[in-house]
Amino acid sequence: MLKIEQLNAWYGRSHILQGVNLKVEAGEVVCMIGRNGAGKTTTLRSVMGLVGRIDGQVLFDGHDISKEPVHRRFAYGLAYVPEERRIVPGLSVQENLRLGLVGSTNRTREAEMIDRIAETFPRLRERLSQSADTMSGGEQQMLAIARAMVSEPKLIMLDEPSEGIMPVLIDEMFELFNRMKADGITILLVEQNVERALSLADRAYIMDQGLIVHEDTAAALLADTEIQERYCAV
Ligand SMILES: Nc1ncnc2c1ncn2[C@@H]1O[C@H](COP(=O)(O)OP(=O)(O)OP(=O)(O)O)[C@@H](O)[C@H]1O
Ligand SMILES: [Mg+2]
């Protein structure tokens, strides 16, 4: 579904990604782990079209999208929930969810879709009319994920969704990811919470200094404490 080949990315003169190769098959949950500054966020941003200068191929469903603008990538079925959740303050939860429909071909079924999302995210259902900026950090993160789901993406990319969130909500979030996985949703997950991420994922990539340095099944990596200590110690 997603295939990244020899991806290079620059911020100004800094050459950050140095030939990243990665793929995600339909229905897979793939996680990307690695130290701070390894290039994980830059990889997701590059796939979404948010990095100014890149080189290499990003294939999505067979199309080379590496030169497509963000909205086209969105229309192809990519969704991205960034590290810093981008909920819109001043809008209610429901209005934020509605924003997820912008650009979607499915706009007519808005009410139905918001119902369905509210079903999956019980915390949001109770708060549909609450102003989004009065929700807790964890609830805002759930909202950001829910909003990405509204567009019914083929692939959802999540950047450290559990960061700064209290353990009970992290449990809830991973339960949600497990349900999404069971529903066949394809996920590319960046997570510092290595054990949880590897327990959820099918496969994993370890990134270091702008390169993929290791890839394996999540189960094999979960058992490999040496690799974990080498590349994942925060
Ligand atoms: N906008 C930017 N301008 C310049 N350099 C940047 C920019 N964003 C990131 N970088 C640099 O690119 C490198 C990779 O950053 P990136 O955010 O991709 O890492 P990461 O693996 O997501 O790290 P973390 O685990 O801390 O989120 C870092 O050295 C970072 O300082
Ligand atoms: Mg990051």
Report on this structure.
The chain has two domains: about 1-75 and about 155-230, P-loop containing nucleotide triphosphate hydrolases (Rossmann fold, 3-Layer(aba) Sandwich); about 85-145, no CATH class. Helix 3 (about 95-100) runs parallel beside helix 6 (about 135-150) and helix 4 (about 110-120) crosses helix 6 (about 135-150). The chain contains ten helices and ten strands. It has about 230 residues and is α/β, with parallel strands linked by helices. The longest helix is centred in the last third of the chain and has 16 residues, at about 165-180. The chain is globular, with a radius of gyration of 17 Å.
Number of domains: 2
SS content category: alpha/beta
Summarize the helix and strand pattern as letters. EEEHEEHEHHHHEHEHEEHH
Which homologous superfamily in CATH is the superfamily of the largest domain? P-loop containing nucleotide triphosphate hydrolases
Identify the strand order in the major beta sheet: 6-7-8-3-9-10
CATH-derived topology of the largest domain? Rossmann fold
- Overall strand count: 10
CATH level 1 name of the largest domain: Alpha Beta
First-to-last CA distance:
31 Å
Overall shape: globular
**Rg for CA atoms:** 17 Å
Low-confidence stretches: none
Largest sheet: 6 strands, mixed
What ions, cofactors and ligands are bound? Answer: adenosine-5'-triphosphate, magnesium ion
- Named CATH architecture of the largest domain: 3-Layer(aba) Sandwich
Instruction: Give the DSSP E fraction (strand runs of 2 or more residues).
Output: 25-35%
Task: List the total number of helices.
Answer: 10
